[in-house]
Amino acid sequence: MLDILFFAGLVLYFIAMTGLFVSMVFHQEGLRKISWYIFMAGALAALVYLIIRGVKAGRLPMSNQFEFACSFSWGIAAILIFMHYKLKIEWADSLGAAMTFLILSYAALQPREITELMPALRSAWFGFHIGSAAFSYACFLLAGAAGIRYLLSHKKNPQDPQLEKMDYMIYRLIAVGLLLLTITILSGAIWAEEAWSSFWTWDPKEVWALITWILYAIFLHLRLGRKKKGVFAAWYAIIAVPVVLFTFVGVNTLLPGLHSYGSVIFPYIL
Known about the structure:
Elements: H1 2-26, H2 29-57, H3 65-85, H4 93-108, H5 125-156, H6 162-196, H7 204-225, H8 231-254
Helix pairs in contact: 1-2, 1-4, 2-3, 3-4, 3-5, 5-6, 5-8, 6-7, 6-8, 7-8
């Protein structure tokens, strides 16, 4: 049952992504609407999967590499759906759907066994810390998607009235993402003190989380203090995405440390 739900979500995301890209290129409004409903069906399948897995595990389904990737992917989908209906933003649908699919595809490559939490990680900070990280990363990736769409629209028509809205959305997504990452780091420090008797150990995961935080804090400084926006902001949001992905995946693969058991028991976060 769980595998069926997981791969149903993956297939639905793929179909939706393909349909949204085709509709964007050929301006097929009917196809766009159908593809969007398929995307929401995929998000629903992914959510039901996470709920059932969490019930079976007896904890939040965010305790290993596979589960965090699934939650990360669903976080992107949830924010994208919010943007679509609450903010009336549809220009991000195709790239957002692609990122949702790619992150879930990464999850599909990981072991899917349900594992027990080690005692040090059985804490009230568990969901708070990991959930804020998943949605923080989701905001940053969607900011990158908005940056790509901004550059494509700017190249086609530098006077496009949508450009200002796209630019502002890049700023809003990064601001929210930075707030959530701040919560992630602070809650992680408190949790680390409880688990390891130290607020900060300069573990590679901690260091790269801090690097990511500084990178986006610089963006906000340039945006608010020096009014850097438009093409500059779009490129900045795009170039910053690999740093987020390295913090998410690369650190535990290449730089083992206290969080190295994340590949089995703990997700790729601070």
